Amino acid sequence: VAPPAAPAAVAAAATPPAPPAPGQSIRIELSKLDKLIDAVGELVIAQAMMAQRLSSEGLAASEEIAVLDGLTRDIQESAMAIRAQPIGSVFSRVPRIMRELSASTGKHVRLEVSGESTELDKTVIERLGEPLTHLIRNAVDHGIEKPEERLAAGKSAEGTLTLSAEHRSGRILIRIGDDGRGINRDRVLAKAIEKGLVAPDAQLSKEEIDLLIFAPGFSTAQTVSNISGRGVGMDVVRQNVKDLGGRITIESEQGVGTTFTLTLPLTLAISDGMVVNVGDQTLVVPLANVVESLRPAVEDVKGLGSNRAMMNVRGRFIPVVPLHVAVGAYGAVEAPQDGVLIVVETEGAGRAALLVDSIVDQRQVVIKSLDTHYRSVEGVAGATILGDGRVALIVDVDGLVARSMAEHGQMDLSHPHGLAEAA
């Protein structure tokens, strides 16, 4: 079991920030906060409609409208801050989990925590516990070696698990890292071939092999235990993170360790988006996915037939995903050089370029769920009301690109050698 000093060190490192002084806080029903957030969302929509009306009538935006825009954003940020809570309330559960895992596995593990005062929406925090627990269990059971194995590899007998949180570009990054054995990609690939997930002759990159661990029911554990090896867990983690509007990425080096990074929105109510025209439809692409936008030269685009193409972006070929095909829009541009390509970063397929007719603008959008009235549609994350009163679908970039890859053959599209073979 872990040395007696370790649990004390863990508890001290994960201590959440002190509560507010008496008289500096009040208790309030969550339903009242939800009503406030909904009202703020409607205010954002109303402000956008007012600005749109002035623009459509040829009137220049006045200084008062600019002030209103700033006040609306201030109110929105203040309302979101009321719902925000320190992530330390989730991190504080980890030391107990670590002690239980150390006792059941016989591994010595030290926990290092940082960023526990980082705040995000209460709803996100409430749904973060399960995926975080899965990742910690996975790190201790699969990642960190037993003391004798670590000593034989020239490491200290005590492993280290790091847990951190930080704000970056309007999102929150949560990292769970270990200094264990890293992902054995040969073993993962062999298991994936055995289970029929990939073809025996498939040429996968390191990143693609790593993502195989998120396949439903996938496990390389040789024995089943209460911790892992039951064929459930990592696929649940990925789905939970996706349901929160986030993504999960992996960095791993064999013999050095593995780090999982969760990128999550600060709130599930309002987001920054890029409004685009695609044929007869107007869509919103989440700004969190956007890398850049450009108009390609003819020589930078290589057609592969059947609505497939690759684009050369500074020496790197990435697949072109025509949005009009994905959403069934009519009257859209079909040649990449005739439209605008939005380069996006996806969770499972790397970078891709979304083909749109034009970019309208960039704005805050109020996210409206469609789950109440419609079944889940892959590639659609929700909807929003634009300034002119129209409803626009919000694109689920990860789901849409993944579906396009599956329909057109991912290997041909995501690697330069596929381009060479198709040429």
Describe this structure as you would to a colleague:
This protein has 423 residues and is an alpha+beta fold. The chain has 2 domains: 86-265, Heat Shock Protein 90; 270-422, OB fold (Dihydrolipoamide Acetyltransferase, E2P) (Beta Barrel). It is 36% helix and 28% strand. It has 15 helices and 18 strands. The chain has helices at residues 5-13, 30-56, 63-83, 88-91, 94-105, 122-126, 129-143, 147-152, 185-194, 206-211, 234-243, 323-327, 397-408, 410-414, 416-422; strands spanning 84-86, 108-114, 119-121, 158-168, 171-178, 247-253, 257-265, 270-278, 281-286, 290-294, 301-305, 308-313, 316-322, 340-345, 351-356, 358-366, 380-385, 391-395. The strands form 4 sheets. The chain has a 6-stranded mixed sheet with strand order 10-14-15-13-12-11. It has a 5-stranded mixed sheet with strand order 2-4-5-7-6. It has a 5-stranded mixed sheet with strand order 16-8-9-18-17. A hairpin with a 5-residue loop joins β14 (340-345) and β15 (351-356). α2 runs antiparallel to α3, α5 (94-105) packs parallel to α7 (129-143) and α7 packs antiparallel against α11. The protein is flat, with a radius of gyration of 24 Å. Residues 1-16 and 410-423 have low confidence and may be disordered.
